[in-house]
Amino acid sequence: MCPESGLSSLEFTLASMPRFIRNSVAATLACGLFLALPAAPALAHDRLKSSDPAKNAKVSSLETITLDFTSKVRFPAVVLMLDEEKINLAKPKLDGTKVTVKVPEPLVSGKYTIAWRVVSADGHPIEGEIPFTVKAPTPTPTPTPEATEATEATEATEASSTPSAAAAVSSPVAPTPVTSFSEAGGEEETTEGDGVPGWLWVAGGILVAVGVVVWLSTGRKNNEA
Fold it and tell me: CopC domain: from which residue to which, for each copy (predicted)?
């Protein structure tokens, strides 16, 4: 049979059917074609495109968690865990395809996990986990007030004692100089004069008086002769 005769027979058959049967056949063929189309685009949900921190990343600190999806999402929920301990976070914020969450306090070193859950644009919830590690820098020890006061007192004591010692070394006591040999000799003579006994002076005076009397008596006798 040629194709034209077969097509004519099909047209004749459809034309000879009642209208409700023809409508039913058309609806069945339309449903079959719809079901035969690829269903992947209709079943594709939104997904996480990137995150900060990334999966298995190692960071020194973390102030904000950022999740970027392939499309706009709704009703975000984010939880941060350190082993079995839940870390307090701020309320998640939506900005287009991104979800951001502030971390209020610095994180200690350890292995963390971000658990997230959102509702995609087609209404289906999606969720996931992001493990990462924090290696915080070692803080510099702060001196206590007592240690600071003791250090300042020691420095002050050393500073006050150092000038006195330097002055003692740099300024020796010099002996009193002798201006001349005559002054030294005069002092020695005066010292020796002060040491003559008084009775010698009295005896000398008596001898002088006796000599004067003898001299006067001898002179008078010579005049009388």
Answer: 45-134
